[in-house]
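User: Here's a chain of 209 residues. Predict its fold as tokens.
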Amino acid sequence: MLRVGLTGGIATGKSTVGMMFIELGCHLIDADRITHGLLRPGQPVYSAVVEAFGEHILSSDRTINRKILGEIVFNDPQARSKLNGLVHPAVIQRQREWLSEMEAKDPAGIGIVDAALMIEVGTYKNYDKVIVVTCRPEVQKQRLRARSGLSKEEIEARIRSQMPLEEKAKHADFVVDNSGYLAETRSQVAEVNSRLREFAANTSGKRRP
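Assistant: Prediction complete.
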């Protein structure tokens, strides 16, 4: 099975692109969904995060308030590094397990891991191919404002907290520009999928140890 990393910046439309690959028959797991599960009460990662950041990050129902936690880590690189250190190892372990499960089910298929920070933390090297989703800065800010209601300063802080898109694109085997109409993005995704299918056919049965 071909193992593919899908990444991009905040509000570039990475999830939309991921859904398009699913529609084309690829398997996909979203790192953010894994994180949501790990941060549920009763999970070891939940306990570690609450211990590290304090109970003021909790809502009244004892779930972690992601808005409060986000405000802390997006404005403090040290806090962000601490959070990543608590969460990422468990996320990466689950991604590996999922890829192995998918490979057993569909040895000639394509397994895609959707993760925002794979280039920053270096895990992009674990994949056969890497796709980076980009869009124009003004489109990125507009989308983030529409979906989050954040202030201009908060939006700038969140974008600054991530690696610049042009830097991420340097690590890509494929770049999907999601600035325009969905039909344009879908056309790019179809082309990338076609290329990935060729690679998958060549790597089937040749999985590295």
